[in-house]
Design goal:
With 219 residues, the chain is mainly β. It contains two helices and twelve strands, in the order ααββββββββββββ. The strands form two sheets. The protein has a six-stranded mixed beta sheet with strand order 6-7-4-1-9-12, with no helix packed on it. 19% of the residues are buried.
């Protein structure tokens, strides 16, 4: 009955959704767009001095399987005595729900079916692939947006699990006198994926990725 009572909560919810990348903006006015990008509200891949990670996934299937799949990420650092950093990234997928009846002749909605997942991993430019597991195609590597990208593909079935992992060298060595800065950029539209950071066998931090996150890792 009093709309003004709702303006505050509505704006708070809008700011939260922008921060969590559920809302993005693109403006034709360049100066205005520069302002939007300064607020990190345009989804741009950032330049960054240090370690960087952005996992970008696309569902190539017609069903909305992403609604049912839970995703957890483990980032594992292994640092040699000379400061060389090897990194292993593991993504675990779980779909605990039964499949939809996808018979369109019966008028059913095919919502939960096989997730056909195209994966692109953005990492610091110059990173070198060591090994990979779980991709159903050969991993490809290329440069894009100032990053090195590792690209693969896998499927996740209803009531099934899948794991994708890559190991790679970072293009710089650790200065042991200072922590390693790391930026994780969240893919717009994703929600509450779990991240665990491990260094030399010790768990450093565990969190749900709600927005872009910068951390300082002491290795």
């Amino acid at each position: 009955s009093s709309p003004k009572l709702y303006w505050g909560p509505l704006f708070q919810d809008l700011f939260a959704k922008v921060s969590e990348k559920h809302v993005l903006f693109y403006l034709y006015n360049k100066d205005a767009q520069d302002g939007i990008e300064a607020l990190n509200a345009a989804g741009r891949i950032k330049s960054y001095e240090g370690d960087y990670l952005h996992i970008n996934e696309a569902n190539f299937g017609g069903a909305k399987s992403n609604l049912f799949v839970k995703e957890s990420v483990v980032v594992n650092y292994d640092v040699a005595e000379d400061g060389t950093i090897n990194k292993k990234l593991t993504i675990n997928y779980t779909n605990p729900f039964p499949p939809s009846d996808c018979n369109l002749e019966r008028g059913n909605l095919c919502i939960n079916a096989i997730l056909r997942n195209w994966i692109r991993i953005y990492v610091p430019q110059g990173s070198k692939l060591i090994d990979s597991k779980g991709s159903e195609v050969t991993i490809s590597s290329y440069e894009e947006l100032g990053k090195t990208v590792f690209e693969g593909f896998l499927t996740v079935r209803p009531k099934g699990v899948a794991t994708f992992s890559i190991s790679y060298h970072l293009p710089f060595k650790l200065n042991k006198a200072s922590p390693l800065p790391m930026l994780i950029q969240k893919q717009p539209g994703t929600d509450n994926n779990s991240y665990t950071i491990i260094a030399n066998g010790k768990e450093i931090e565990k969190f749900p990725l709600l927005t872009d996150k910068e951390i300082k890792i002491r290795l």
